Amino acid sequence: MQSNAPTIVSSGGSSASYVEEYVQVIKSCFSKDSVIGPYFYQLIDYLQSDSTSESRMNPVPSAIRLRASSDLIHQTYAPATQPWGLDIPEKNVTQTQAPCLITIEGLPSPSCVAYLGSKYGLRPEYWLGHLSLGRQSPTHDKFFELPALPSRRGNIVQVLIPFLGRRTGSSYATHVSAIERLQAQQKLEEWDRHLFQNKKFGATRLRKLHLHSSQYFSIEQLVSFTVCTRTPNSWVGIFLVDQGLGVPETQDTPWSKYTRNRQAPDFLPILSYNESPSGYEIQSTAREMSPSTPNPFHPRDHVRVASDKDLDLLRESPFAVLASLLGRAAAGWAQILNFIDSDIDKCKIPGPSPTTEALGSALEQLRFNLDFLAHAEQSLKDNAYLIEWHGSRTWPGHQEYQEATLGAELASTLLLDTQYLIRRCSELSHRCESVSQVLSDTINVSEARENFGQTQKITNLTTLAFIFIPLGFVSTFFGMNVNVFEKNPSIWIYFAVALPFTGSIFFFYYCCFHRRLWRRSQQSLRMASNGG
Question: What residue ranges are annotated as transmembrane (predicted)?
């Protein structure tokens, strides 16, 4: 990725001309290295797939102009009933020198990508990383380019926002099987392909869906952020958020199975402790949300400043906006880690008299928690890197924000929280491993007991067969068609022959058994004497 922040370029024309213009920009990125062309052609194919027509579900771009404390203005552009307004942001945003935030909700349409890309000179990696075009088709080429090296991410920032939800209609939490988790993942992939194939531009996307138990689940949504510079003291920040327009209640979504009558999932709220009242707040227009749409984090709804100094920092550096995003992500991860902590305690004691199946289910749950903790730790480490670098060194006001007291304090607090969560992930992983070891030992002991019981049963059957085999042999002998036995000898003759014969066999077995015991004892004595 290019490390320099893109500068705003002048452009104008129709939707098709924006597409053609941005396609040329994309091709110039691999003009000197054709080997990487297939990676960028993903975006070119997406732009050319729907360059003229527009779906009824369009993303609603919005902008915030950061000017004076008494003039924090939020404006929404391009109503959903119209095609993406190509001229509105140009005449309302770029003519002012105040910093500006632009937010695109849901799946961006090709015309939206082409317009913003050509107008603000955005790198193709910004769109490719957010769109994740490889998810729309199982046979699509995979490049495994993300996450990129820190030195190559440049001014492109991506943050995962987790939400912990409660499944309606479930009052008791039980473990979830691996098959059900696999089905949920397949449902999520089918939903993403449905959005692309049916051109549901502006619809809500999910990046991950985790089934923690029969009562709780979590989702993750992606927020991508980049900065374009106009002048040394003016910048435009562009947000891409997965949360978008609602979907019809009849639409089968990945979260439909976990709600009653296709209502909105019940997400647990994030509680704020000791938060001081905000002096100023960026106003947000009301948006119509479908009942089947998750409750999102939205950047513009969480940008708050407490004083004129904070507002000055907000205008000078985009990191102040990114800080609210990272703070919300940290709070979400903390909530889920608290849930996993309690879940480990439940796995430690599956029940008063747990069966082998219950112990195996608890062990599988702990393995799932281990995988989730590794994923959460990696996401938090990426966030810690963003905090240490204050987003990107190429952003305007980067040095001034680092030297500012409020900016340094904000970054220090965020880094402290993030490092605490990273350590907690490691501690919970160690707990999962230790409890898993105990459960594994318990399962082994339980299986050994079951095997011993089965061995005892087999021994009893062998003993019973050993008793009846001699008797059966004698019965077979007397039942043979022999002239001596044609007069049907008395039953007492059978017992007179069978009992001594069976007794002699048992005596022979007894002698052999005790002889083996005597040999073992002699070997033990010799080993003991040699050792002494």
Answer: 458-479, 491-512
